[in-house]
């Protein structure tokens, strides 16, 4: 397999994402964990861009990196005092968690790499935004107007619920 | 061309990092961050399967789009609950959280 620019970009993105993901769950400071989560989300957006799904990458950056991370940072600053460190987990809890995770990771990777997928192919070319819009708004067989409406009601319910739960009594 | 399996390896490692964090973390916000990692890895899988195996359809694309929206909603409600917990018991450790009804 020759080294192409595509492969180099993918390798950098993959390493960035994986290292940030591992650091996000192993660091002791919670604010750093949120920052590493932001890096993971940026890396994922990069993977979407690399797969020629620019719209999805933009959505990922706007909603996840722009919205959710800010929400996390604010709630961390609201709920933890300065210099607050996560207690170090030790002993059999750490080892059993690590062993279970690594074992399942091994099994999953083995199954994924052993499995014979149907022949995959990758064509370059952007997915047009008009196609996305038409599919999102069409009530036909492969249309998504019903999930679109349902998720708008869900978001409204979440706004109301969030205000109701978090308000001062 | 990059093989599809490479993307799946990245998402698998991310998913199990999230599971490890969910099992070992004792802080509600850190557990929520781990859940976010798990959701994100599943999104990558949807997109990759859509792109490489069924490029003529858009199912995985829209699943990811809706999953991003739903996870935003889930995070908002979870953080509201966590802030409410903090207001009542003054910390967000799992250990000191015995009941959620006041």
Report what the structure shows.
The complex is a heterodimer of chains A (169) and B (102). Chain A is mainly α and 169 residues long. Chain A is built from 6 helices and no strands. Chain A has helices at 5-26, 30-50, 54-79, 91-114, 129-137, 145-166. The longest helix of chain A is centred in the middle third of the chain and has 26 residues, at 54-79. The relative contact order of chain A is 0.07. The model of chain A has no long low-confidence stretch (mean pLDDT 88). Chain B starts with a helix and ends in a 13-residue tail after the last helix. By secondary structure, chain B is mostly helical. The model of chain B has no long low-confidence stretch (mean pLDDT 89). Helix content of chain B is 76%, strand content 0%. Chain B has helices at residues 4-24, 28-53, 59-89. Chains A and B meet through helix 1, helix 2, helix 3, helix 4 and helix 5 of A and helix 1, helix 2 and helix 3 of B.
Q: Report strand % of chain A.
A: under 5%
Which H/E pattern describes the elements of chain A? HHHHHH
- What is the beta-strand fraction of chain B? under 5%
The ordered string of helix (H) and strand (E) elements of chain B is HHH
* Fraction in helix of chain B: over 70%
- Chains forming the largest contact: A-B, 78 and 69 residues
Total of domains of chain B: 1
Q: Which fold name fills CATH's third level, the topology of the largest domain in chain A?
A: Four Helix Bundle (Hemerythrin (Met), subunit A)
Q: What's the total number of strands of chain A?
A: 0
From the spread of the alpha carbons, the general shape of chain B counts as elongated
Category by helix and strand content of chain A = mainly alpha
User: Tally the helices of chain B: what do you get?
Assistant: 3
pLDDT under 50 segments of chain B (min length 5)?
Answer: none
Give the CATH level 1 class of the largest domain in chain A. Answer: Mainly Alpha
Structural class of chain B: mainly alpha
Radius of gyration of chain A: 21 Å
Shape of chain A: globular
CATH topology of chain B: Helix Hairpins
